[in-house]
Amino acid sequence: MSTSPAPNSPGAEHPLPTTAQLRAAAETFALLASPVRLHLMWLITHGSYDVSTLATHVGISIATVSQHLTKLRLAGLITAHRHGRRTLYAVEDPHVITLIGQIFDHIAPDGSLAPDPPR
After folding, report:
1. pTM of the predicted model, to two decimals?
2. Domains and CATH numbers, the chain
3. 42, 53, 106, 111: which could join 49 in a potential S-S bond, CB 3.0 to 4.6 Å?
């Protein structure tokens, strides 16, 4: 006899995550745990930028920004496109854009949890 999951139990609306999904999600969150990489991600979700512009906005060296961008690109979180002599970095995955937007909607400017908007 098969029963469906209770309304609030795992699997009721979404299938349980696989081990591979859990591992990949943890690796993504670990990558985003760096304040510099999170700052870069926030900037790149709001437009395409070259490395020197990103370095200026974040206040660190071009070499350091390049290292962070390489990690983000290899993880598939950002893309790089040539535009003349410059390489522009962008976020094209709507899931990543939503993830970055949601975390900053959740955290107030003072670092506390942001209050929920009125319904």
Report:
1. 0.83
2. 36-106 (1.10.10.10)
3. 53
